[in-house]
Amino acid sequence: xxxxxxxxxxxxxDMLEKMVLIRRFEEKAAQSYGLRKIGGFLHLYIGEEAxxxxxxxxxxxxxxxxxxxxxxHGHALACGLTPNSLMAELYGKITGCSKxxxxxxxxxxxxxxxxxxxGIVGAHIPIAAGVGLKIKYLKEDGVVLCFxxxxxxxxxSFHETLNxxxxxxxxxxxICENNQYGMxxxxxxxxxxxxxxxxxxxxxxxxxxxxxxxxxxxYDTVKKSIEKAKNGIPVLLEAKTYRYKGHSASDPxxxxxxDELEKYKSQDPILILKNEMIKNNLLKEEEFEDIDIKCKxxxxxxxDYAEKSDEPDLNELYTDILI
Amino acid sequence: xxxxxxxAIRAAIDEExxxxxxxxxxxxxxGQYNGAYKVSQGLLDKYTDKRILDTPITEEGFAGIGIGxxxxxxxxxxxxxxxxxxxxxxxxxxxNAAKMLYMSGGQLKVPIVFRGPNGPAxxxxxxxxxxxxxxxxxxxxxxxxxxxxxxxAKGMLKTAIRDDNPVIFLEGxxxxxxxxxxxxxxxxxxxxxxxxxxxxxxITIISYSKPMKTVLETNEKLKELNINAEIIDLRxxxxxxxxxxxxxxxxxNRVVIVDESWPNASVASHIGWLIHKNVFDYLxxxxxxxxxxxxxxxxxxxxxxxxxxxxxxxxxxxxxxxxI
Lengths: 323, 324
Known about the structure:
Strand content of chain B: 15-25%
Largest interface: A-B, 46 and 40 residues
Radius of gyration of chain B: 20 Å
Largest sheet of chain B: 7 strands, mixed
Helix content of chain B: 25-40%
Number of helices of chain A: 12
Number of helices of chain B: 12
Mean pLDDT of chain A: 96
Distance between the termini of chain B: 42 Å
Strand content of chain A: 5-15%
Radius of gyration of chain A: 19 Å
Distance between the termini of chain A: 52 Å
Order of helices and strands of chain B: EHEHEHEHHEHEHEEEEHEEHEHEHH
Keywords (chain B): Oxidoreductase, Pyruvate, Thiamine pyrophosphate
InterPro entries (chain B): THDP-binding (IPR029061), Transketo_C/PFOR_II (IPR009014), Transketolase-like_Pyr-bd (IPR005475), Transketolase_C (IPR033248)
Helix content of chain A: 40-55%
Strand order of the largest sheet of chain B: 3-2-4-5-7-6-12
Subunit structure (chain B): Heterotetramer of two alpha and two beta chains. Directly associated with ODBA in the E1 complex.
Shape of chain A: globular
Protein name (chain B): Pyruvate dehydrogenase E1 component beta subunit
Mean pLDDT of chain B: 97
Domain Transketolase-like pyrimidine-binding (chain B): 3-178
Shape of chain B: globular
Structural class of chain A: alpha/beta
Number of strands of chain A: 8
Oligomer: heterodimer
Order of helices and strands of chain A: HHEHHEHEHEEEHHEHEHHH
């Protein structure tokens, strides 16, 4: 176990609060989805919070970049996109981060260097390397975090990109969030290997497996990886994690057992950090309660904001196609 | 100054790269090999491997890397060794390049040019010899250009490189050695501006890219028949210069469209529909299309030539539309 005492209390509190916010935001989103206020697909990140928060906590988003998949709510919140603009996007309102034109799978914030929110499995992986190529070309001091799921790791785009990232020494850290299921399929049934981090070796990159339920492990590993990536060695991390919900909100997830789900819930990423902090006198139960109440309130306010926001005008249909 | 198509394209890239260090060229064999069709000859020596990037044979991957670089502020020119291989990169072009601005609510622009040879070549069989413009023409969020002369190629490509949108720039694979006059001074040819290759009053023939040559050859025969054709070279497919088309139709009242892509739901069929919809009252005959035959390209040369628009086919179409 990592010694929690070596971290600033402020950092720990920040990471804890971000994880709770993601959890409460998504629970609210799921509720609104149930009420049909939100349409389409809704891929929830609940259970995986430690991966996004732990990794992104290392970044300076004035120079670093983040790209992720369609399961993007957690990463967007970790990058500092406001809950209001995200909930409004889910509601399809003009106040949404993508003006209501993106939806759940297409959160973007150019200023915060959050480049999506991408809906095609694996197709954003080369895009991330392209962003990294810009950093390299302009001799900037940034790094790109590219998140994707275990389903994407078999795509050609992943393998093509790792090869080019290595030959051009592009500063990217590829983070495979192995939540164990690619849609409804257990990854073990469709993967020739079970430790994805060894794929890094095929491209002369650095690879490591990390416990994605332990935010401190994620934080430390990504910190170390950033140094490597900036020194010309791209990194592939596999974060072992678990999603509590189905692939999307419409998936009852009958392909897995209750026992399995309960087992993972007992090592919940929020509980792990909370308990460790309490044990070391860095947090009191009441303080956690306060955080939780505050995050629930933020989520509710976001839903109220989205509810009250305007729909896009019909003429928005024809804007933003070309510049 | 008379130069070839490949020299005109190279000059456009060179002149723009000189001006703007954010422009990079990437693709298979664009650097050390000097380009499969020698378009990029000499550019590696001038700009080094920092700006001229040889890629592995991975169209989806390097198209995507170009798109990401464009989103972050560079201005990549991505060469497809041939557009036949761009089919592997279609997901990147359609799902990412074309839609990024829209689905980000106007935040992320993608200033990239995808260029390379397109259209039928000779003896290459079905997978290496086909005209793919319709796939890109179909897609909102892309601009599509297809020049027919070295002069146009240079002026249009410079415009494409400076544009902040993703541009598909189609060069006829058989056209690289074609020569033509090109102005000495710098010039730009804008999007959405067709050009009349001939003025005429009897019939409008609309075409673009390589088949323009066949159309102009056909015109020599039409002159012998005292048929006075107005020939329109579209140059830019998206945006399309509808005005020039309609003005001409109002004058001639008869139209043949020549397009070497397949006929179904094609550039040609769409323009035919636009004409019927917008200037129907001016038509004295239904619009006739001369396209590729609706078949994959055969290897056999006799069949191969017959699969494409020919002088004879265009002549027959003109006669049909003119009821002669």
